[in-house]
Amino acid sequence: MHSIKNIYEKIYDFENLHKAWEKARRGKRYREDVLSFNRNYEEHLIEIQNQLIYETYEVGRYHSFYVFEPKKRLIMSLPFKDRIVQWAIYQQLFPLYEKTFISDSYACRQGKGTHKAADKLQYWLRQTERKPERYYYLKMDISKYFYRVDHEILLKILGRRIKDKRLLNLLEKIINCETTKFGLPIGKEPDEVEVEDRLGNKGMPIGNLTSQMFANIYLNEVDQYAKHELGLHYYIRYMDDIIILHHDKKYLAQVKEDLRIFLDENLRLNLNNKTAIRPCSMGIDFVGFRIWATHRRLKKKTALKIKRSMKHYVEKVEDGEESREKMERAIASYRGILSHCNSYGMRQSLNRLFIRKE
C-alpha cells in the first residue's frame, strides 16, 4: 500500500479550491450564505487558502436538525465555507483511497450506487439458484454506525497511509470537532441523548462529505478481512449493510462470529439485532429493495415513503406552495427508481396522483 505524501499543497491550491467551490454550491446557489460568499468568492477562497497554508483553519459551528426518513436521524450541516474545505480535501484524498477498495463496496463511489449493488446481488442469486445446494444469506447490520465510529481508530487507519503531518492535523480537526459532539453511547437512540450529552471521541456527522469518505475507509478494514482473510466470494457491502451468500448455514454462523469479533476488537463496532441468516429463497432486503433471483420489489417502507412524499407534493402544488415543475421532477426521479424493480402497481399509483393534479 503506497504512502500518501505531499498532497496538502494540492488541497489549498487555488484551482482545487475553485473546483471545490463550484461543487459545493451545486443546487444551493440561491441560499443566503452561498449568495453572500459568491459576491466576493475569489477573496473568500484566498482567505480559505491562507488559513490552510498557515494552519489557522478551524471548523465552523454545525447547524443541527432531525429528519425522519426512514427513521429519526440527526443531520448536521456546516457553513458553506467549511463545505468548500471538505470538497477540497475530498477531491485530492478520496481518489487515492478509492483505488484500495474492493469492487463490491458500492456506497458513495462513482459508477457504483444502490442500483448497481442490487444488480450485482441479483446476479449472484441467479448464479447460486442454478447450483444443486440450497443457498442462505447472512445479512449484517452495524449498530448506529455513523454514531459509533471511534476517532482514535479512524485516525490510526488514516495515519497508516498518510505521511503528511499537516494533512493529518487538518483531518483531526474535522474528526475531533471541538464545538460539536457526534457519538452515541451503546444502546442509545439519537432522540434519547441530547446533543450536549453525546460522546466526543466517537461518531461522525451524517451528511458531511468527509464523513462519507471516512465511513468507506473505516469499513474497508472489514472488506479486506472478509475477502483476503476469510476468503469470502459472495460478499457485498453498501455502507454498513453487508450481505454474504453461502450454501452452509453453519459456515455462515462461523463467518458471522468471526466478523463480529473483528468489528469489536479492531473497530469497536457492534452488530445490531437485524443481523440474521435466512434462505435466499425468502428474498433479501438490500439497498431499498427486496431481491430474489427472478425479480425485485421495493421494500414496503420505501414504497410507503414514496407515496407519502408524492401526496405531500400534490397537496403543496394544489395549495400554491410548490411549483408543478418541482413535482414533475420528483415524479421523474421516483419513476427512475421504480424502473429498477417490479413495480407496475406502484407506477399506476403515481400516475393516478399525477392525473389528479392535472
Question: Topology, pairings included?
Answer:
Elements: H1 8-12, H2 14-24, H3 32-39, H4 41-53, E1 63-68, E2 72-77, H5 80-98, H6 114-129, E3 136-141, H7 145-148, H8 151-161, H9 165-175, H10 209-229, E4 235-238, E5 241-246, H11 249-267, E6 276-279, E7 284-286, E8 289-291, E9 296-298, H12 300-318, H13 324-338, H14 344-357
Can you walk through the features of this model?
The longest helix is centred in the middle third of the chain and has 21 residues, at 209-229. By secondary structure, the protein is an alpha+beta fold. It has helices at 8-12, 14-24, 32-39, 41-53, 80-98, 114-129, 145-148, 151-161, 165-175, 209-229, 249-267, 300-318, 324-338, 344-357; strands spanning 63-68, 72-77, 136-141, 235-238, 241-246, 276-279, 284-286, 289-291, 296-298. The strands form 3 sheets. The chain has a 4-stranded antiparallel beta sheet, with helices on both faces.
